[in-house]
Specification:
This protein has about 675 residues and is mainly beta. The protein folds into six domains: about 90 residues, no CATH class; about 70 residues; about 100 residues, no CATH class; about 220 residues, no CATH class; about 90 residues, Immunoglobulin-like (Sandwich); about 80 residues. It is built from four helices and 59 strands. The strands form 15 sheets. Strands 4, 5, 8, 15, 18, 19 and 23 form a seven-stranded mixed β-sheet that branches. A six-stranded antiparallel β-sheet has the order 9-12-11-10-13-14, with no helix packed on it. A six-stranded antiparallel β-barrel has the order 25-28-27-26-29-30. A hairpin with a 2-residue loop joins strand 29 and strand 30. The mean pLDDT is about 95.
Length: about 675
């Protein structure tokens, strides 16, 4: 069909609207059609509707109007059926009013209302040019502003309502964007399973799920797009004429050999109108092999955005990690990421905050409560540290629920795919401040923190392929500010992070010492040695203040980084010549030069410097077929392994030496029955 069959010219109301068909035409084709039409003798008395500045830039002039509301079937919206150029207006300011009406009491306008006179509190305002019942929006040819609260009716028509604000007038701009680049295109996939480009404007996905692009819909020969978008209305740019174009494909059901692509997005400023290229690049993600139906079950993974801190004057315990808490008066909620004390006063770090916490209210969850002594102080980062490492700042804390990082990666892509309404809580620093946190749908999430100051203090670099981080070679590479914890034991080193301040951080080299071929009740020990089978019993010397009854033990030296997080410390009283000179205590933790949580408590006072202590890698009774400990590797250690058993069936003492190195250590105990022991 010719363009004249699809676009209709309303000479009386000086409007052009789409009236038939689904063909998408270039703006040049529309311009050429109008020029051809208006050079006919019958139209010589009519002002022309459009002028051309370049082959891709056009202006609607002389008060002419093009319908843009998505009403009717087919839609009267001219701009859905145009491509290849931009359109601006000249002459609508002070001639066309755009009016939004209140939801209460609104009566839908109908097609026959077009061209009829709109009444403003009973006075003629002008003819109705277009309407959008979904958003209760009318376009009226009128020179005077319509006041908020005005009663609006249509003479001889149906639509009616009350103005929700003053009408606005000004020029409009529809910029043209087209995508290019190498993108994955599964053109043979079932309906609804093909790649779909989508667009964020003013914080929301526009035309969500009802995009008219790509040209040809499900039958399109490419998933690339070429469309016109409104970026200025009534003389005011919509969100600064900024848009972000996304392509984040993730299959919802098995229909392809690979269910997901590497993502991409592109932000562009359309203030100048014109025709604008949007480069996109996507490809099959060979590390994302699970479909939505599977990955949706990984929802025990927690994603918490650091939003701020709140002080408390009292607290009655320790909140569980990632515990959701609620304010008793405000009803505000948040996720606890850190607390500085378990009694008395302190500070909570909260993430994913909804609402406004109040000073003096009870904040409770998980059987623990605290009394707030302040409101929330906004923050976008908090300190986290690897075991025995230094603190560095991070902005998103992800609890992996013991899952492999391959699954964590797939879940992080799942919650940021097209269509995801998963709530993110990123922070924003606007020009002039202050810092604040907001919410964003997963499908629109780009980074944890955005600094929009003229001179940014911290600019987070986005990871387009996967917003929380990528996965390659069995290893997760986190985006800036992303911290992960509690992953599967096999993956404790299979990641690399970038802290909120932009520095790359890698986990320590944690390696295991494993003794196998055991039976329950075997006595097992792995000692550090000075050489051969000589146990190093002077690893540390006693510090000051190690008194009877203490449940801590202080040494003069810094405790070695490769010391087990909990285990056994053996303390040697060098002045004691009896069999009680060496005491064995379990400890629950250590830091700096202090072992804590000793059991039993110290049974004597230890002399500073003279007495010594040492910590075996393993010093325990087996409860199964193997015993293992994981520690941070710092340097090679010579070790002595001993396995002994007297209880039936007794074995000859097993002993061997070895080296704990950068890849760990493992040996199997030789079980030779002791046929003589009784």
């Amino acid at each position: 069909m010719a363009i004249g069959d699809d676009f209709t010219i309303d000479y009386v109301n000086k409007r052009i609207y789409h009236s038939s068909g689904t063909t998408i035409y270039t703006v040049n084709a529309l311009y050429s059609y109008l020029q051809n039409t208006f050079d006919e003798p019958e139209q010589m008395d009519d002002p022309i509707p459009m002028s051309a500045q370049t082959p891709t830039e056009y202006t609607l002039i002389n008060g002419w109007f093009m319908n843009e509301a998505r009403e009717g079937s087919p839609s009267r919206n001219c701009f859905e059926f145009l491509k290849g150029g931009a359109i601006q207006t000249s002459g609508q300011n002070g001639e066309i009013q755009i009016l939004t009406l209140q939801s209460s009491g609104y009566t839908n306008a109908v097609a026959t209302d077009i061209g009829k006179t709109v009444q403003d509190d009973g006075a003629d305002a002008g003819p109705l040019l277009d309407y959008d019942n979904t958003n209760r929006k009318w376009w009226i040819r009128a020179s005077s502003t319509i006041a908020s609260g005005s009663s609006m009716t249509i003479t001889g028509g149906t639509g009616a309502g009350t103005a929700s604000a003053n009408s606005s007038t000004g020029e409009q701009l529809w910029a043209n964007i087209y995508t290019l680049g190498s993108i994955e295109e599964d053109l043979g996939a079932p309906a609804g399973q093909k790649q779909q480009i989508y667009i964020e404007q003013n914080g929301a996905r526009i035309f969500s799920g009802t995009e008219w692009w790509p040209e040809g819909g499900e039958s399109a020969t490419t998933r690339h797009i070429d469309i016109l978008l409104k970026v200025k209305e009534a003389g005011v740019e919509i969100d600064g004429a900024q848009i972000t174009v996304f392509l984040r494909h993730y299959q919802s059901q098995p229909s392809e050999s690979n269910p997901a692509d590497l993502y991409d997005h592109f932000n562009i400023d359309l203030s100048s109108g014109g025709r604008n290229a949007v480069p996109l690049a996507t490809a099959n993600d060979l590390n994302n092999t699970s479909y939505q139906s599977t990955v949706s079950g990984y929802n025990d993974i927690t994603i918490a955005f650091v939003n701020g801190t709140i002080n408390y004057s009292a607290i009655n315990g320790s909140f569980p990690n990632f515990q959701t808490v609620t304010g008793s008066s405000s009803g505000a909620t948040g996720v606890v990421l850190k607390q500085t004390s378990t009694s008395g006063s302190g500070t909570l770090t909260l993430g994913n905050v909804v609402g406004t916490f109040q000073n003096g209210e009870s904040i409770s969850g998980g059987g623990v409560s605290a009394t707030s002594s302040s409101t929330l102080t906004e923050a976008y980062k908090m300190p986290k540290a690897f075991e025995q490492g230094s603190d560095y700042n991070y902005s998103v804390i992800i609890g992996c629920a013991g899952r492999p990082l391959s699954q964590v990666y797939e879940y992080l892509k799942y919650v940021t795919r097209i269509g995801s309404t998963f709530t993110m809580y990123p922070t924003i620093y606007p020009q002039g401040g202050p810092l604040y946190h907001t919410t964003k749908q997963g499908q629109l999430y780009i980074r944890a923190h955005e600094d929009n100051q003229t001179s940014p203090t911290n600019t987070f670099s986005p990871v387009k392929a996967s917003p929380f981080g990528t996965f390659a070679g069995g290893k997760f590479f986190g985006a800036q500010g992303v911290w992960i914890e509690n992953m599967a034991a096999a993956d404790i080193q299979n990641f690399q992070l970038i802290d909120s301040d932009g520095s790359t951080r890698t986990p320590p080299n944690k390696q295991s010492i494993t003794i196998t071929n055991l039976l329950s009740d075997d006595r097992v020990a792995v000692f550090r040695t000075t050489s051969g089978t000589t146990i190093n019993k002077a690893m540390y010397t006693a510090g000051a203040g190690n008194n009877t009854g203490n449940t801590t033990f202080v040494v003069n030296e810094s405790i070695a980084v490769d010391t087990p997080a909990s285990g056994v410390i053996r303390i040697v009283d060098t002045s004691d010549t009896t069999n009680t000179r060496e005491r064995r205590h379990t400890y629950t933790s250590w830091s700096g030069s202090t072992f804590s949580g000793l059991s039993p408590a110290l049974d004597r006072q230890y002399v500073q410097t003279s007495d010594t202590a040492y910590v075996p890698f393993i010093d325990t009774t087996a409860s199964g077929t193997q015993v293992s400990v994981t520690v941070i590797y710092t340097t090679d250690r010579t070790i002595l392994v001993r396995v002994r058993r007297y209880t039936p069936t007794a074995i000859l003492p097993f002993e061997t030496t070895g080296t704990f190195g950068s890849t760990g250590y493992s040996t199997s105990a030789i079980r030779t029955v002791d046929s003589i022991v009784s």
